[in-house]
Amino acid sequence: NGVVFEGIEYVYEVTGESVYRDYVLEYMSSMITSSGGWATCSNNSSKQCAGYNATHGADCYMTAALLLDCYEMTGDNRYLTMAKTLYADLTSAAKSYSLKNAGNNFRHTWASDPSPDLWLDGLYMILPFRAEYAKHIGDQQELDLIVSRMQWVSDNMYNSSKKLFYHAADSATSNSGSYCYTNPNTCSNS
Fold first, then answer.
1. How many CB atoms lie within 10 A of CB 8?
2. CB of 183 within 8 A of CB of 177?
3. What is the pLDDT of residues 146-182, one digit of tens each?
4. Tens-place pLDDT, residues 4-16
5. What Rg value do the Cα atoms of the chain yield, rounded?
């Protein structure tokens, strides 16, 4: 959802047509309570909207990248409160779910998945949010770490003969051997 809504926000930025901005704001607002916490799903009061829970992982953070944009468009502190919460959540998760052998990048999923891999698609979900919030609060150390993480990926996951990045890796010497973002068991090695 975050990828789609980011695209809709870009359409708003280009066209200036408020219908696109309003659609993004309506979606994001529906997931946040009046105090800035995650709303529960209407069909299951025990689950938080958008899958944010103790075992989520990289996929959830693409939507989070929109929080500061929504705050800037509206001045509504709920968006800022949620961004702060998720930034702290990722800071805490880094202690357990970053891969020391993979440039301190985050595992793609948390406790519910035993896979130790860094996935490329996780990078564009987690790191843009981290970078945007770190910039907002002036956290230069985090911005430097993001650059370091991306440099590790560039140095270790790029196949220069094929001019493609590997889909996943768990160290500089162990990658998935595939170049797609779907199930690694069905990816092409060519």
1. 16
2. no
3. 999 999 999 998 888 888 888 888 888 888 777 754 4
4. 889 999 999 999 9
5. 17
